[in-house]
């Protein structure tokens, strides 16, 4: 698998996990007493964070929220030097 394919596959996983979080959030908004759904929502958040961290460790931050302040001060705002997702 090429580096490009690996990056795209991992980015797709991030998007999929974010979608799952949104769906569980919408469901739990209308079913706040469903304990099973709340547990699924918590797990989805953890899973999405893990996939996002995996992507960011390998390919860099996905958003400004991902850049710790100390890192930003030490290395500058280089987050925008990589190609944007639509440029890949």
TrEMBL record:
Classification via InterPro entries: CotJB_dom (IPR024207), Spore_coat_assembly_CotJB (IPR016571)
Pfam families for this protein: CotJB
All copies of domain Protein CotJB, residue ranges: 9-87
The entry's keywords: Capsid protein, Virion
Source species, domain of life: Bacteria
UniProt-recorded name of the protein: Spore coat protein CotJB
Organism: Psychrobacillus psychrodurans
């Amino acid at each position: 698998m090429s580096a490009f394919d690996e990056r795209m596959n991992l980015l797709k996983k991030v998007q999929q996990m974010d979608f799952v979080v949104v769906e569980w959030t919408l469901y739990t908004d209308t079913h706040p007493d469903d304990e099973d759904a709340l547990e699924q929502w918590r797990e989805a958040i953890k899973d999405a964070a893990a996939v996002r961290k995996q992507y960011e460790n390998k390919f860099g931050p996905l958003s400004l929220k991902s850049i710790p302040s100390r890192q930003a001060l030490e290395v500058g705002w280089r987050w925008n030097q990589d190609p944007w997702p639509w440029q890949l």
